[in-house]
Amino acid sequence: MFYTPEDGHGLPHNPFNAIVSPRPIGWISSRGAEGHDNLAPYSFFNAIAYVPPQVMFCSTGTKDSLMNIRETGVFCVNIVEAAARDVMNATSAAHLPTVDEFEKAGIEKAECDTIVCPRVAHAPANLECRVVQLVQLKGKDNHMVIGEVTGVHIRDDCLKDGRFDVTTFQPLSRLGYRDYAVVENVFELSRPDD
């Protein structure tokens, strides 16, 4: 099969998300200028640079997260563990900007240290971020947020022998359609020049 996006794929569901998978989930927390907290998952998310450390996530539509980030210039990425899949999914519901998804889903929050923003208190890790760039992408209402990581929280039980061990919390990742996967097994590969 071959198709061009402008001509369509002819399938019952768009295969693009399934092809580009698995994708980490950026569980983005933010606070608006008037103090309303927001928490929402984004599967177009990734780390993009080491020094300084930077991450990005993309939003289709001007959602509450994007509005808050435009107002304050900060956000926090909360890493999603398998055990949090149901509460993460609950925060994907559409609510008015004044609704606090932390409270609605029963998620404990904590304040960040380097930015004025809430974070998921018991997440395996949290990345506190200051906006570097907001990019209007091609297409209808597509936006990319790039942030520099200014603070990192790591849950103590996720550190094993000085390494952040993903098998201790099993990250949740997004596949295509309504499919998700859990990272349960890892293996190492050495580069040829190591």
Automatic annotation (TrEMBL):
GO terms for molecular function: FMN binding; oxidoreductase activity, acting on the CH-NH group of donors, NAD or NADP as acceptor. Residues 20-166 form the Flavin reductase like domain. SMART domains: Flavin_Reduct. It comes from Vannielia litorea. Gene3D superfamilies: Electron Transport, Fmn-binding Protein, Chain A (2.30.110.10). It comes from the Bacteria. Pfam families: Flavin_Reduct (PF01613). This is NADH-FMN oxidoreductase RutF, flavin reductase (DIM6/NTAB) family. InterPro entries: Flavin_Rdtase-like_dom, Split_barrel_FMN-bd.
